[in-house]
Design goal:
- The complex is a heterodimer of chains A (278) and B (247).
- In chain A, 71% of the residues lie in helices and 0% in strands.
- Chain A has 278 residues and is mainly α.
- Chain A has a single domain, classed as MetI-like fold, CATH 1.10.3720.
- The longest helix of chain A is centred in the N-terminal third of the chain and has 50 residues.
- The chains are: A mainly alpha (278), B alpha/beta (247).
- The complex binds adenosine-5'-triphosphate (ATP) and magnesium ion.
- The site of adenosine-5'-triphosphate has 11 residues of chain B, from strand 2 and helix 1.
Chain lengths: 278, 247
Amino acid sequence: MGKFSQLIQDVIRLCAKYLPMYLSGMKNTVLLALIGTVLGCIIGFICGVLNAIPYDTNAPLGRRVLIRTLRAVIRGYVEVFRGTPMVLQAVFIYYALPYFTDGAARFSSVWAASILVVSINTGAYMTESVRGGIISVDPGQVEGAMAIGLTHIQAMMYVILPQAVRNILPQIGNNYIINLKDTSVMFMISFTDFFAVHRGVVGATYSYFPSAVIEMIGYLTMTLISSFLLRKVEQRMEGSSSFELVVSDPLTLTSGVYRHPVSEELFKERSRDYKGKD
Amino acid sequence: MEMEPILEVRHLSKTFGTNPVLKDINFNICRGDVISVIGPSGSGKSTLLRCINLLETPTSGTILFRGKDITGLGNEVFAYRAKVGMVFQSFNLFDNLSVIDNCTLGQIRVLHRSREEAQEYARQILSLVGMAPYCNAKPRQLSGGQKQRVAIARAMALDPEVILFDEPTSALDPELVGEVLDVMRELAEQGMTMAVVTHEMAFARQVSSRVVFMDEGVIMEEGDPEELFTDPRNERTREFLGRYLNQ
Ligand SMILES: Nc1ncnc2c1ncn2[C@@H]1O[C@H](COP(=O)(O)OP(=O)(O)OP(=O)(O)O)[C@@H](O)[C@H]1O
Ligand SMILES: [Mg+2]
């Protein structure tokens, strides 16, 4: 037990001195993960939707070539950024700029570089998720949409994507939580996230384990709160499982006789003013 | 009887890979027609309907809609599809939208009606098919028969000149078939132009103005339902109907 009370004291001592640093690290981590995930989702949706443009063998050659090229480029992007570690992508992108310009151009802020890396990385995963989400929507509904005269883009916007989003919502949340943790590699390009604070603190105090305990608790707090919030969002997207029957005869609404004499508004079936023909 | 053709199918052929599914199909749909298309499985009935509203691109031949060839249409194809309604075997309702939104989407996006106008009209049509009380339901909360009635309303809401039905009752439990056929019968009586691929021989015989028998991608026989059902001229028709009539 002595060791535990020792640990608690060490943790308190570290917190007393470095709490603002830990907190600001957490803030940076959450911000980077959030922005990266949002931008990554945008990239993923754009790529996923572009990928889903139907390839019609009867389309003009130029259009077919364009679609094929687009798909190849997206494929390449996904494979490269899914197939390499993010830590390497970070240094790769961060140092590529000064290398090619002989030091003339470099990222003016590690924020910009970090957001870029996390977004591109998340985008690669989301592209695949969105593709899967689109494919998982019943193709019959696409036909239904075509049959009433919607264009491909309209079918996407009003029918396919709303369902795809619901299908991949858990994966978006998953990506966010992964980003909360994996942005810890950004210390490589001097981004001061939560984990970078740990490195700073132990450099000064050699309190490796107590600081690691703080980090564990901090990361768990962030991920657990996120999971909780995400589940709330999912429940909300689920919508109600029941519906109410509309009991009046809607035909009575159409003749114009049923407008409210004062407000001139159509009677709502459920409004107080409406007297259904019983 | 008026004989103003809405759709004229001329020498229509469709080949999937090397598999010729439709071979030189010729027939007309006139205003007020209720055409039943019957025939064995795989004979190309669905493909014919799908070619007519361009869900499939015909390999050769022409389809005239009010005298205008629609096989080479560019962006007008979307407006054309709205004029030719389609009801599928598997309903194909939009699962993310309520019943009424299923019926307003096309009105708003394709016909550019205002939301209020579209909703009011959708309510009228829905009450026609007996689904008005379910305006706010989602498709997954409905029975098969109810879904199909909504699908019919969705097609009708666009004021199509003709509605194509592809085996509208084949996916339904037997006790739900009647409610959908009743709606279709009602539509036919109101003068809606319809082409119905069906295995419901009683419906084909009683409701349609003309019956088309297809086999192996060819229209084998076409004629008055009473004649075709009692005294088919074609040997294949006789064989096919025999199977049904003996049941
Ligand atoms: N997209 C496709 N690609 C390749 N072959 C197809 C395609 N669609 C249909 N076919 C083939 O075309 C033939 C006719 O199919 P179709 O669905 O038109 O028949 P059907 O008369 O509607 O049959 P059923 O009564 O079973 O619905 C079948 O042999 C089928 O395998
Ligand atoms: Mg079929």
